[in-house]
Give the backbone structure.
Amino acid sequence: MHLRLPVVALLLSLAGAPSAAPAQGLNPMVRSLLSAHGTRARVRAARAVGRMRPEGARAALLAALEDASSTVRCAAATALGDLGDPSAAGALTAHLQDHNPRVQDASRRALIALRVSPGSVAQAAPAPSAPQGSRYLVTVGQVQARPGVAPELRLAFRAALEQEVARHPRLTLQPSQATSASRWSLEGTLLGASHNTLAGGTSARAEVSLVLLREPLHAIAGTLHGMGTARAEGSLGAPSAVEFAAVRDALRSALTALESHLGEAPVRSARR
């Protein structure tokens, strides 16, 4: 999967690259890594990004870890090791479970390059900080989108869900490898996102559904639903950016009911 540039800019801005919003302003190697059609071109770009370290390198390489090509995922993992940013440890650890053994090996080597033990990364790479008084440990699990939703927007949806969990006043975002006597997970579905461009600007609406699960039983504790809207006046913002703002608004709406479900016992198993 290569990413369409407007949503690439969203991913970079989520990861903290300050000038990522205009797609045309991306470094050429970053642009090639995230949008080139050829696998070889994306592999070459991943290697170059790891060596040159342009602005947005870490976010671009993290996105490339989700590429459909295992060869690109290998190159991205290796480049993250070259980049030397320990904050990539959590994503690399997730790919120790990649279905391709070469990606697993590249991720392991990258963790070693970052001086992080693959067996202790959950302790070495702490979750984003949450406000004092947080009581619930939450992991973001499977995230999907209904047919018709761009896969790139699904990827941005996952990043937004993780950020909203990390910012919630009663939650602490946990890496998927962390263990806890009282841990919860959230799975999400992006039900839809659409926009409408008129003379006065662009408006968008989005709808999401979340399932709260109690681990390790993987038992359903509750379902959450949210709808959101966003608007950009005049020519401000690409339609995809406005859609993403609506998705984030829908997530915030869904999470408002989360705490009431956290106090309830799980009622049925999600396992088959």
Observations:
- The beta strands are 136-145, 171-173, 183-198, 201-215, 219-233, 268-269.
- Residues 5-123 form a domain with the Leucine-rich Repeat Variant fold (CATH 1.25.10.10).
- The mean pLDDT is 76.
